Amino acid sequence: MLAREAPQPWWIPRRLLTVVSADVDATAGVGAVWIVWRPKSPRMREHIALLEWYEEQWRYVGGGSGPGEVPFNVDVLDVRSAGGVLSLTRRNDPPRSITEAPWISCVKVRLGRDVDHVLIGARRIDNPEHCKLIAVWTSPYISRGARPVIVALGADGAELSRIGPHDNLDAHTWARLRKDL
């Protein structure tokens, strides 16, 4: 992931396991991988793996899995399946570990075809060809439920939509719903 190479191992057939997306925030020392096991099977499962650079190596710190979601089209921006885990740095100072260790969070993002890239906080992530990505960040434990503002931008740099830290729907979808009412 850090070398910006395709995260799909060459020796695992995509019919068994597909790496949908991977993200690394090198500044924060965290990463996330979105994996689908048996992607075209009725027994499809999705797994999110969260990683942290700890003691000079990448370590798995947690994640989750569940049944795969049915594919759907997105107009501009859809943010789902937030998850998180407490950082391994909690081991450094056990009495204050939970309140002072960072929280590692991630979300799965689906984008419309017109989206060129997204801003997740201050980080820019290009829209992959299949319009699905995972984004990871750290925050203080106390604000673990909030995500950064996510802004979808077109190729010309124009803002297409945005979703705030506690919003369920993006601005484009809200505008469409108001118009339909």
Describe this entry's structure for a reader.
The structure is a single chain. By secondary structure, this protein is mainly beta. Strand 3 and strand 4 form a beta hairpin. The longest helix is centred in the last third of the chain and has 10 residues, at 171-180. The protein has helices at residues 97-100, 171-180, and strands at residues 17-25, 30-37, 45-54, 57-67, 77-86, 102-111, 117-120, 123-126, 132-140, 150-153, 159-163. It starts with 16 loop residues before the first strand and ends with a helix. The model has no long low-confidence stretch (mean pLDDT 86). The protein contains 2 helices and 11 strands. It has a 4-stranded antiparallel sheet with strand order 1-2-3-4, with no helix packed on it. A 4-stranded antiparallel sheet has the order 8-7-10-11. The protein has a 3-stranded antiparallel sheet with strand order 5-6-9.
Give the termini distance in whole angstroms: 44 Å
Count of separate DSSP helical elements: 2
Strand content: over 45%
Helix content: under 10%
Low-confidence stretches: none
| Gross geometry | globular
> How many runs of DSSP E, i.e. beta strands?
11
Largest sheet: 4 strands, antiparallel
